[in-house]
Amino acid sequence: MSFLDWANSLPRDWKVLPLRTSADYAVSNVDKVPADDEVPVRLCNYTDVYNNEFITLALDFMQATATEGEVARFGLSIDDVVITKDSESWDDIGVPALVIESAKDLVCGYHLAILKPHKTSLEGAFLFRCLQAKQVRLQLELAANGVTRFGIPKHEIGTLILPVPPLPQQRAIVRFLNRETERLDTLVAAKEQLLALLTEKRRALITRAVTRGIGAHRRCRDSGIPWLGEIPAHWRLTRAKFIFRQSALAVRQDDEMVTCFRDGQVTLRRNRREEGFTNAVKELGYQGIRKGQLVLHSMDAFAGAIGVSDSDGKCSPEYIICDPIEPEVVNDYYGYLLRVMALNGFVQASCPAVRERAPRIRFSDFGEMFLPVPAEREQRAIVAHIAAETTKLDAMRSATERSIVLIKERRAALIAAAVTGQLKVA
Q1: Which of 37, 233, 255, 407 is the most buried (most CB within 10 A)?
Q2: Bridge-partner residues for 35, per DSSP?
Q3: Would you report the helix, strand and coil content of the chain in percent, each value rounded to 5?
Q4: pLDDT digits over 147-177, tens only?
Q5: Cβ proximity of 355 and 302 under 8 Å
Q6: Assigned superfamily of 5-164
Q7: Within 13 Å, how many C-alpha atoms sit on residue 351's CB side?
């Protein structure tokens, strides 16, 4: 099957035309470097196009400069379509945005191309929807050159094959898609709000359980610790160094890398992702880690990189690995508790920073912090309660996330069907 099969099943009164017959196009060379002999402009950049369907004056455009010739050639007008010309991924080539508001100083930036439809044959809004259809945009993706970075040659833009219905039908399709995509986008926004509420509820549930226990009508007292607040009166407070000792296990020959992620999962790196990490040539100071040990990432603990390992393996010396001093200490309880502490800003406020927003915590710092110590049976009950309740919330989250995916797939299919004549639009 050809990726242009859609062109063989268009309605009889539709045309199949290369873009160059229905639009002018230009590849921008306006860079971000200001020059004294140029005029000030607002620069529409790659991210403005990639992250927004519509270009409006409400966007926070970069302040830059351009020559008067560049302003004349690459200035944006209402109904222009701007597409991504270069990208690190070939399937991000040709992503469109429609200009619905403009100004004399709004200029298209580097790594983008401007498409200016001929008003007698092509509506900008219809061209925009065509390029949102994967079946149509795939032509640009396949024409992109590159290995680690991809770009579409200018002449390939002109050869892009488009479905071109009569103008009245183009306008009807645009009205239909504007109405339907707005409806679907509203539904997605509502579901994303539900996700935010589920996240907030999950965090509140864990915070209350680890700091107040799960029994009703408990008598409480002030802990004297700002992030902790009130705790059950029968809980004692003690420094972490009297609860935990720092582990110092040797690395075994077959140990794989374990990573502590900011969401609190501590697992073999291959269980999550391999990309984005820098591996040491010589693993100096690396240490062994075992399933069930409490782990804090010294550089990322402030952002929640604290948890209990679900795997045996090895890790860098930037990890603080803790073992309980007494058998009644339940590591899972303290994994939850310490993430609450971190996400309330206590690690960031208490430890020195070696880079912006990245305070480094050492075991010596951790050891001086006061922590609550419920009885072992309470710790285990709290962990069980959190596991049961978060399982319900996580199931709701998964179902909601899946429904968002399905709505977005429905949206994409609707656009593709409408612009290729597979869907009758009144």
Answers
A1: 255
A2: none
A3: 40, 25, 35
A4: 788 999 999 999 999 999 999 999 999 999 9
A5: no
A6: DNA methylase specificity domains (3.90.220.20)
A7: 29
How many whole angstroms separate alpha carbon 108 and alpha carbon 306?
44
Burial class (CB in 10 A: 0-12, 13-18, 19+), 361: buried
To which H or E segment does residue 359 belong?
strand 358-359
- Domain 236-373 fold is Adenine-n6-DNA-methyltransferase TaqI; Chain A, domain 2 (3.90.220)
Helix (H) or strand (E) holding 26: strand 23-27
Q: Are 152 and 140 in contact (CB under 8 A)?
A: yes
Contact 319, 259 (CB under 8 A): no
The gap between the terminal CA atoms of the chain, to the nearest Å, is: 30
Domain edges within the chain: 5-164, 236-373
Task: Give dist(CA 84, CA 281) in Å, integer.
Answer: 38
Closest CA to 292 of 267, 317, 271: 267
What pLDDT digit, counting tens, does each position of 51-91 carry? Answer: 999 999 999 999 999 999 999 999 999 999 999 999 988 88
Those residues whose C-beta lies under 8 Å from the C-beta of residue 5, and which sit 6 or more positions away, are none
Query: Which residues are within 8 A (CB) of 16 and not within 5 positions of it... i.e. 6 or more apart?
Result: 7, 10, 161, 162, 163, 164
Q: In terms of C-beta density within 10 A (0-12 exposed, 13-18 middle, 19 or more buried), how is residue 52 classed?
A: middle
Mean pLDDT of 6-25: 94
108: left (phi over 0), alpha (psi -120 to 50) or beta: beta
Distance CA 138, CA 155 (A): 16
Are 169 and 202 within 8 A, CB to CB?
Answer: no
66 with 111: CB under 8 angstroms?
no
